[in-house]
User: Fold this.
Amino acid sequence: MNRLLCSLIAVLLAGSTIACLGQGPSPEKVFDVITIKKSGGFEGGMGLGASTPDTISLSNTPIKSLIAHAYGIKQDAIVGAPSWVGTEEFDINAKVLPDANGVVPRLNQQEIEARFKTLLRDRFQLAAHFETRRIPVYELSVAGTGSKLKAASPGDNYASGIKMPNGRTGAGLRIVDNHRFTGQAITTRTLADTLSDILERTVLDQTNLAGLYDVSFPIPFGEKPTGGDAADGHGGETEQQPSLASVLSDELGLRLKPAKADGKVLVIDKINEPSPN
Assistant:
C-alpha cells in the first residue's frame, strides 16, 4: 500500500521545482487547508483524487500508509500502533495557499513529507520515535545454479521498451504492469529495493553482482509477508517463503531467503482518531 501511495504522490512532482534557500530558519511546513473524513467504503482501493501541484487529494487511505510515506519507511517498520491505523481508511484533502506575493507553491517530495508529518501531529496527535531493533528481512543472493540475469546492452536506448506517461524511455526505468515487473538497465540494488516494495519488507542485496541488467518476471498474486507485527518480533518466524522466491530462482537464478537484521523502526507513542475539520 505504501508503494502505491508513493507512486501516486510522485505524479504531483512532475515538473516541480525545488525552492531556493532563504535567509534565516525555515518556517514550519504546513498545509493551510485540510479536510479529513472517513472513507465511505468505496471498493476501488486507495487512489489519488483531483490533485494539483499545490493540493494533495487522497482517497481510501489507511493512516499507516501515510505515516510510512511521511517518515520514509516501510509499513512493517511501524510498531506499537493501534489496529485502526492500518485498517480504517480516510479521504484527505490538503492544500497550500499562495504566499504573500501571490505565488502558488509547487511542492517537492521533501516538502510533501514534512507537511504530512505536521498534519499527522496536529490532526492525529501523532507522537513517535525511532529505535533500532532486530527485524525480519529478506536476503537476495545468487542461487546455487548461478545467476540467470541478462546483462544490459551498452548504449541501448530502449526505443521499444518502457514508455512513461510523459513519453520518456531509456535506461534505468522500471514498471509493474499486469502483475509483471520490468526493469531496463537496473542494478541488483534497484531490484532489491523493488522487491522490498512488493513484499513490504526490507530486502538486502547480497548478490555481489556489479553492472546493469534487463530484468522481467511475473509477480504472483497476493505477495506479502504473513504473520504479526514484524518489527515487534512476533511475525515472520513461522511464515512460509513466498512463491515469489520460486519465480526469482527459476527465472533469474536468485535466492530470496528470510533472515534477521538490525533495522530502524518507528515506534508509535501516541495517535488518536483525527480531530474535527
About this structure: The first strand starts at residue 33 and ends at 38. The radius of gyration is 20 Å. The helical segments are 2-12, 63-71, 84-87, 109-124, 188-199, 244-252. Confidence is low (pLDDT under 50) at residues 6-25, 43-50, 225-242.
